[in-house]
Design brief:
Blueprint lengths: L2 E7 L4 E7 L4 E3 L9 E6 L5 E5 L6 H15 L7 E7 L9 E7 H8 L9 E4 L1 H10 L5 E6 L4 E7 L2 E8 L3 H12 L3 H11 L4 H14 L10 E4 L8 H9 L3 E3 L12 H7 L11 H4 L9 H13 L10 H18 L12 H11 L4 H20 L4 E9 L2 E8 L2 H15 L4 E7 L2 E8 L3
Length: about 450
């Protein structure tokens, strides 16, 4: 029997659950048993999640691009980051990668929760919910884990993690507030919460605030919400939650004798790599080189991506386009040390210089030059420079660029400027990226 051990080191207790990895069934772990895999949960409160979109599925190419994306978006230094990702089919906004990162110091703290065993995998606890639901045959759901120190809200679509939001408020916070508002001890507050639950105004207000701050995505009413966590056992919570969200509110589906409120994360960890699917492994990825030391390799891979669309009947231009790609990236690295393409206007002089030396501009140079001029025109028209180009793909077939801006007017201005500059229709799609406006544009180049 191939055993896998899942560990959930919580603030109140540590749960350990073993499964037969071939069948996904829960088993009793004898003292002499040696699990083939030990999977430790990393609490969502210490992790950073990113949903990313790339036009390919190759694992090695995705790894390179994810490293570049994370370098510019993490709230901690890239050379201190531990990260991994799962690839998935594109969802509503075209995302096909879900990345997870944390500082190395956070990973070291998580590893102390393994106790007397050595973990082979450290996975984000959010993927435990995905696996537990997958084993139960549920592919679309909202989940919420009301824990002692934090509450984790997730959206799962077609069996893949779509959304994670962590609020640093849980059962301990509720008990403290209840004690203060009722002028009783923490023990008395806990007793009142256990005995009366949701009928207490303070308890209802607490859960109401959590839901308001969770910013749950809109889901069809037939999509249920599954509840777990110690605070999820609050008397009357499931009924209140079902009415509040106009959908079925249910305990997480786990096999007997497991508890749907306390055993879910450990059980989900034990299912890592089984029928329920995989997740990330931050422990394995801790051996990666820091992101910053990988930039040269990443740029080389990006050069391939930029010239990959060259068609056979224009093969003569391939070498010239590749040379121009190299020049673009080298100057981008010099002009923008963080390896972001920036506003592109810094690269205009490079295109002009190459055109002057060679006597005739190449297709890519003309597109680069035109794009930078269009961007400057858009910034002037919108009266804003708060626009960033995050990804530029140029080929003889056309142009595709992706970025974000502070507001929609500058995006519309850029669309009009590109259409004017290249005398071509511009396809535009937008979406919200945090407090910024993401966009993607494509057009057929002359």
């Amino acid at each position: 029997m191939a055993l896998q051990l899942g560990i959930d080191h919580g603030s109140i207790a540590t749960r350990r659950i073993a499964v037969d990895s071939r069948k996904g069934t829960v088993v009793t772990l004898a003292p002499s048993s040696r699990p083939s895999q030990v999977v430790l949960a990393a609490p969502a409160a210490g992790l950073t999640f990113r949903a990313l979109s790339f036009p390919f599925a190759d694992r090695r190419r995705l790894e390179a691009m994810v490293a570049t994306e994370l370098e510019h978006s993490l709230a901690f230094p890239p050379n201190e980051a531990v990260w991994d990702f799962v690839a998935r089919p594109p969802v509503e906004h075209g995302d096909n990668v879900y990345a997870v990162a944390c500082p190395r110091e956070t990973l070291a703290q998580v590893l102390t929760g393994a106790g007397d065993v050595t973990p082979t995998v450290v996975d984000a606890e959010a993927f435990a919910y995905v696996r537990v639901l997958a084993i139960a045959g549920v592919r679309n759901a909202l989940t919420v884990d009301f824990g002692a120190t934090h509450s984790t809200f997730c959206s799962i679509r077609e069996g893949h993690l779509e959304y994670v939001r962590v609020l640093l408020s849980g059962g301990n916070d509720l008990d403290t507030r209840l004690a203060e508002q009722r002028h009783v001890s923490a023990t008395a507050a806990r007793t009142a919460r256990d005995e009366r639950g949701i009928e207490l105004t303070e308890v209802r207000d607490f859960f109401e605030r959590l839901l308001n701050h969770a910013l749950l995505p809109t889901e069809p009413p037939e999509t249920p919400i599954y509840v777990t966590g110690g605070l999820g056992q609050c008397k009357g919570l499931l009924e209140w939650l079902g009415k509040r969200l106009a959908r079925a509110a249910l305990p997480m589906p786990v096999p007997a004798p497991l508890d749907p409120f306390t055993d879910v994360v450990a059980y989900g960890m034990a299912l890592w790599g089984t029928q329920g699917g995989a997740g990330v492994n931050l422990h394995q990825q801790s051996a990666r080189q820091p992101i910053a030391t990988r930039i040269a390799v990443l740029i080389a891979i990006m050069l391939v991506l930029l010239s990959a669309d060259v068609v056979l009947h224009r093969i003569i231009l391939a070498r010239e386009i590749a040379q121009c790609n190299t020049a673009i990236r080298v100057i981008a690295k010099q002009a923008v040390p963080d390896a972001n393409l920036g506003s592109l206007s810094e690269l205009e002089s490079v295109a002009q210089e190459r055109q002057g030396k060679q006597g005739k501009g190449h297709d890519m140079e003309a597109i680069l030059l035109g794009t930078s001029k269009a961007l400057k025109a858009a910034e002037k028209r919108a009266g804003s420079t708060d626009v960033h180009i995050l990804d530029l793909s140029v080929s003889v077939a056309g142009l595709r660029l992706r970025g974000d801006a502070g507001d929609y007017p500058v995006i519309e201005a850029l669309k009009k400027a590109l259409a004017t500059r290249f005398n071509s229709d511009v396809n535009l799609s937008t979406n919200n990226v945090g407090n910024r406006k993401g966009f993607e544009m494509s057009l057929t180049a002359p």
